């Protein structure tokens, strides 16, 4: 199996200035691998924020409609707060 490896140098990071990124698709090239990792990082941040800020780590519902209602109910105040301080657009 072919793997694409990309070595990234971050001159501002003194502790770990080099990172090695890997992609299992051999057709991906440097910038594509980097953009994929940036997108993945943002998705991980969204998931982490949802678990900690919206209470998704410890809620006790099983039905899909209840899960959707919980997410909608807890997301609305967070969205409103972010829009009211100018960090997010509606």
Structure report:
The structure is a single chain. This protein has two domains: 1-53, no CATH class; 59-90, no CATH class. The protein has helices at 30-53, 64-84, and strands at 4-9, 18-23. The N and C termini lie far apart (44 Å). A hairpin with an 8-residue loop joins strand 1 and strand 2. By secondary structure, the protein is an alpha+beta fold.
Structural Rg:
19 Å
Which assembly state applies to the chains in this document? single chain
Percentage of residues in DSSP E strands: 5-15%
Tell me the domain tally: 2
* Uncertain runs: none
The main sheet comes to: 2 strands, antiparallel
| Tertiary shape | elongated
Strand order of the largest sheet: 1-2
Task: Estimate the helix proportion, in percent.
Answer: 40-55%
Order of helices and strands, N to C? Answer: EEHH
- Alpha carbon gap, first and last residue: 44 Å
Structural class: alpha+beta
- Count every helix, treating DSSP H or I runs of 4 or more residues as helices: 2
């Amino acid at each position: 199996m072919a793997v694409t490896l990309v070595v990234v140098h971050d001159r501002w990071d003194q502790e770990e200035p080099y990172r090695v990124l890997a992609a299992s698709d051999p057709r991906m090239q440097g910038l594509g691998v980097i953009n994929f990792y940036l997108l993945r990082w943002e998705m991980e941040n969204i998931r982490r924020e949802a678990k900690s800020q919206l209470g998704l780590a410890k809620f006790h519902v099983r039905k899909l409609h209840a899960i959707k209602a919980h997410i909608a109910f807890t997301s609305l105040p967070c969205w409103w707060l972010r829009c009211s301080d100018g960090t997010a657009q509606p």
